[in-house]
Design a protein that fits this description.
The protein is mostly helical. It has 10 helices and no strands. It has 2 domains: 1-53, Arc Repressor Mutant, subunit A (Orthogonal Bundle), CATH 1.10.10; 72-234, Tetracycline Repressor, domain 2 (Orthogonal Bundle). It has helices at 3-29, 35-42, 46-49, 56-80, 87-104, 106-113, 127-146, 160-172, 186-208, 219-234.
């Protein structure tokens, strides 16, 4: 092992230890991280921490990116385990994976889907990781439309300003868009993907942030029921063998 390789290995280990300590601080202090406290708990003097992260914002960006990536990995693994033809089953798997990860990692969830961190602006390189769950949801809708399973009622016309936003989104889309018409057009499918996305994370946020406390005790059953309602709204066929009530 060369000296350079050893330095790289040590640097990677210390960098990961700093991240792990910072995640523990998230759980107790929120996003208001103290670099001095993180350095202390990592066994570094504060000035040494700046060899690994340029400042608080750089460390926050690393934690935010990590959270998006780990969440997306869990979502993609859950979705991939469901047969491709079962589009509503894939949607349900995605929803359950997001909820499970959020409940297991409330501090990281709050960092990426809670209140903005004062004085922090996420850089452009967080956009890709942040988009992965939306891309998975969109892929389910695209597959449903391609297979002729996308059956929605008459949709409310989109406001002109929203159509302009969707046109910009289509121009920036990282993959190939479907070429259908009407409710299976790229515009309609992306609009519905955004509806699925916001409903899902609204449901999860209400639970993680305590908005259901003293109201709903049957949390898992309530969640599954709500996401099945949204699946109906999106025109996704019911999961094979599902009775809609379990």
């Amino acid at each position: 092992m060369t000296a350079k390789t050893l330095r790289e290995r040590v640097r990677a280990e210390i960098t990961e230890e700093i991240r792990a300590v910072a995640r523990r601080h998230l759980a107790t202090e929120g996003a208001n991280l103290s670099l001095r406290a993180v350095a202390r708990d990592t066994g570094l003097v504060p000035s040494a921490l700046y060899r690994y992260f340029a400042g608080r914002d750089a460390l926050l960006t690393a934690l935010i990116t990590d959270a998006y990536e780990v969440l997306a990995d869990a979502v993609e693994a859950a979705e991939a385990a469901v047969p491709r033809a079962d589009v509503a089953g894939r949607w349900l798997a995605v929803c359950r994976a997001v909820r499970a990860w959020a409940l297991d990692n409330p501090a990281e969830y709050a960092l990426i889907y809670g209140s903005p961190v004062p004085g922090y602006a996420a850089p452009e390189d967080t956009v890709g990781p942040a988009s992965r769950v939306l891309l998975t949801l969109s892929g389910i809708l695209f597959d449903s439309a391609e297979a002729g399973q996308h059956a929605v009622g008459r949709a409310r016309p989109l406001p002109t300003a929203v159509r302009e936003d969707l046109a910009r989104l289509m121009n920036q889309w990282p993959g190939e868009l479907p070429q259908g018409k009407g409710p299976s057009s790229p515009e309609a499918l992306l609009a519905m993907a955004l509806t699925l996305w916001t409903h899902l994370f609204g449901l999860v946020s209400f639970e993680v942030f305590g908005r259901l406390n003293n109201m709903i005790d049957a949390r898992e059953e309530y969640f599954d029921h709500q996401v099945r309602i949204v699946a109906d709204l999106a025109g996704l066929a019911a999961p094979h063998g599902a009775d809609g009530g379990a």
